[in-house]
Amino acid sequence: MMRVGSKIVALIVALLVSASVEVALARAPIGGQHPTIRLPTVGATVQGFRCDIEIGNVQIAGYVPVEITLKPVGTFTADRRFVVRVVTNRDSQTPGQNGLAVNLPIIADQGARVVKVTRYIPKWSGGHAVDVSVLENGRSLKDYAASVGARLTPAGYRYQELLGDELWLNWILIDESIVADSTTPPDKYAAGLGFAAPVVLGSPTATTRSWISPIRTNDLPTDWRAYGNHDVVLLSPSAIERVRANGAAFAALRDWVLGGGTIVVYEADSLGPMVESLGFTPTDATTLTKTIGDIWSEKEAASLTESKQQLALLRTLDRHIDDLKKAEANNPLPATQADESKLEIVTELEYGVIDDSKLIPVKVNGYDYFFPTDVATSEQFRNEMRNTFSVKVAKYNPAKPGIFGQSVGAGLLIGTTVGINDAESKFEWTLISSLFGPRASPMLRRGVDPLMGDRRFDRWMIPGVAQPPVYTFMGLLVGFVVLVGPVAYRKTSKSGRSYLMFLIAPVLAMLTTAAMFAYGIISDGFGTITRIRQITFVDGGSGDGGERIRSMYFAGVRPSDGIRFPANADVMWYPESFGMSWQDHFSLPFQVLGEVTIDDKSQRFDSSFLPSREQRQFVVHLPRRGIGSLSLIKADDGTPQIENGFTFPLRTTVVRDDDGEYWSVADLAAGASATAEPVDVKGAAKRMGAIYNDYRPVSTTKQTTRQPTYNYNNQVYDLILDVNKMVAADTIFTDGIFETDLQQRLQTSGEIPKGHFIATSDVSEDVIAAEDAETVESVRYLYGTLR
User: Cα(28)–Cα(217) distance, rounded to whole angstroms?
Assistant: First the structure.
């Protein structure tokens, strides 16, 4: 059985405070796995080799890890080419029409004793069962096929039951104290421990579970997508040093953070060393500090039930009677009045009306709890506290603050001085968890629902294609009417051959119809057109970044080679919503969308994913290592120079230096420098707003049918909005971290933080998935810290 170190037990006690917990053992692919598939099946003839396949047990849409191990009988006596084929099981996933067939080519070289390959395959449906087979030279091998996973249950009709990972808070704990033996179940253990998780989500009905997935540093994955269906990585400074020793694993962890992930470092000393230990550059943490102050509000504090507050205070009262008496003698006024400059967070819970001037503090876990003097020092205190009292919670800002952090790329780094062994640090952990917000859902982080789609599909359509040319058609029809009426009829009547109208009218009608059809085809062309919105967030110190690409494709004739994406990309298709509810999708018949071939160089989606004369949309997330940086260099005379450290030219660049002043430059070539133009705050806001509005993702071609305002059947028509309501009820977060943050900077607030920049450029060639595709109305945004 699993033996978990004392740190994990303490973490569960300290971190999880209000709902049931399930803990998943993490191996090389993080999270649970299906039982290992061993081929050929028992009793079958071995065709020179055995094949073991481990597939991740991923319920929600995302990327699934697949580990394939080929073991020959002795050695491979010749080069052999295999394909492991993974196909969605027809009875196990929903929507039924989102099935995928994924081919994983493997070459076994002559003389090899073991061939091992790890791949990550896309999944655009809920559920987890798959059919697996092995092919050689295009032929299925007998007895080298199996199925794994369970069928859909009736509970899948309610997506909350099927897509729990979108609503649960999924933690990954990186810790060396984890020990497991060969009998440990690969997916779940210690289920239903009865511990509670912090109430961090917006709706009281949102989540009742948290996951802890512990993993050793030696078992960390080397692909950033392994973290994709989890929400938070938790580790200590000493664990960071061990992760750094594994270069590939450390790079994958950094890729995940830059792409929108969250890391929490416990037992951290301060912001700077913590950020630097992860290979990033520290920046001003003022924004996050303010966020913490806002979050620790009366509403959040009230989420800790009155009974739990009373219980905690009752247990500590006896230990602090001496402190009470000292505080009353030496400092009769509340500490909030005695030293307001040190006050960081103040929250008041009103259970009765009490004079603040008569409160004295009780120190508990670094917090000062203020109680009425005549109540706190009396024998009747316990009874009075249960009935009516006022509590002021004051957290002071010590030399080493308890919580700190900053944004990195699209991700978030949070540090805390408390440890996972601190059983009484639930307030700090609740506050930390409150910072996650929409980041607690992979779907909200990505900003795309590949299962159902939504009405936001048409915000990034290619204008003027796959749409009827109305005015041209009207012109052709008017021409037909004129020719048939005044022209043909008059001519035939004057010549005494009116009977010819029975021939002329249908011929002209056929010619007009043919002209309309031909124009409709020719006007859209026969090539491929794409509209791309590429958003790159950059960490200037390291030159690494994370990226989101939203692309729409239209092919006059479907490309025979399909479309290709980078091998390390997270690819999600963005289906168009046709007004169907989740319940309607649940009952759709099974269908495979197409075939995907994945090797170590690319992911190729066949031509089925880009049919002729139909717009198809995809959202891709991609790490960008060594992409470059931007520098602001001031000469001795104070003249600023903006230096482009990227390998591509920039169109418009706006920079804010460490003093808060804005500078701008246009048309900056790759590797070049230019004298910056000063811009006032108002002018900078206007310029950045124009940068966004020039390529604003809004509906330009059509409006889809509105869903009913009142839904008496509790059917879900927009999965992202419904998950948003469950996870972060106070915010509308539908377009993902990259797009939302960009809009907030450029349009809503009209400012960027000190030491940051925003720039635009042409989209990069490597994100155009269709060969020889023409780009229209496309843009690339670059945002991040200066070097």
Answer: 10
Grouping H, G, I as helix, E, B as strand and the rest as coil, residue 117 is strand
Residue among 382, 384, 390 nearest 360 (CA): 390
* Tokens found for residue 188: 């779940």
Alpha helices in 181-305 (DSSP H): 237-244, 247-258, 271-277, 286-295, 298-302
The residue among 214, 210, 211, 209 whose CA lies nearest residue 173 is 214
pLDDT at position 38:
95
Q: What are phi and psi of 515, to 5 degrees?
A: -65, -40
Which two structure tokens, joined as six digits, stand for 174? 């990186």
Structure tokens at 444: 């909200």
Paired with 412 in beta bridges are 262, 407
Write b or e for each residue in 554-571: b if 16 or more Cβ atoms lie within 10 A of its Cβ, otherwise e.
bbbebbeebbbbbebbbb
Token readout for 657 is 């230096």
Helices of type H across 618-767: 681-693, 719-727, 736-743
Residues 565-576 pLDDT 10s: 999 999 999 999
Query: Residue 304 corresponds to which amino acid?
Result: L
509-568 pLDDT, tens digit per residue, is 888 788 777 766 666 667 899 999 999 999 999 999 999 999 999 998 889 899 999 999
- What is d(CA 728, CA 231) in angstroms, rounded to the nearest whole number? 14
Q: Report pLDDT digits (tens) over 75-117.
A: 999 999 999 999 999 888 899 899 999 999 999 999 999 999 9
- Distance separating alpha carbons of residues 86 and 104, to the nearest angstrom: 8
Q: How far is CA 581 from the centre of its chain?
A: 23
What percentage of the chain exceeds 90 in pLDDT? 45
Distance CA 768, CA 246 (A): 33
| Average model confidence (pLDDT) across the chain | 77
Would you put residue 49 in left (φ > 0), alpha (ψ -120 to 50) or beta? beta
Interval 249-282: pLDDT, tens: 999 999 999 999 999 998 898 888 999 999 998 8
* Predicted local confidence at residue 31, as pLDDT: 64
Beta bridge partners of 547: 536, 622
Contacts with 243 (C-beta within 8 Å, 6 or more apart), sequence order: 174, 217, 220, 235, 249, 250, 253
Q: Give this prediction's pTM.
A: 0.80
Q: In what order do the strands lie in the sheet with 640-644?
A: 630-634, 640-644, 673-675
Which has the closest alpha carbon to 164: 98, 231, 234, 225? 231
Which residues are CB-neighbours of 123 under 8 A, at least 6 positions away?
58, 61, 62, 63, 64, 100
The residue whose two tokens read 């790329």 is: 409
Locate 537 and state its tokens: 């967030």
Q: Is the dihedral of CA 429, 432, 437, 438 positive or negative?
A: negative
Query: Helix, strand, coil shares of the chain as percentages rounded to 5?
Result: 30, 30, 40
Quick check: bond before 40 cis, omega within 30?
Answer: yes
Structure tokens at 270: 């301060």
Strand partners, 663: 655, 678
Average pLDDT of the residues in 397-411: 72
Higher pLDDT, 122 or 199: 122
- Residue 761 phi, psi dihedral angles, 5° rounding: -160, 180
Query: Taking 90 as the threshold, does the pLDDT of residue 216 lie above it?
Result: no
Coil/strand/helix, residue 264: strand
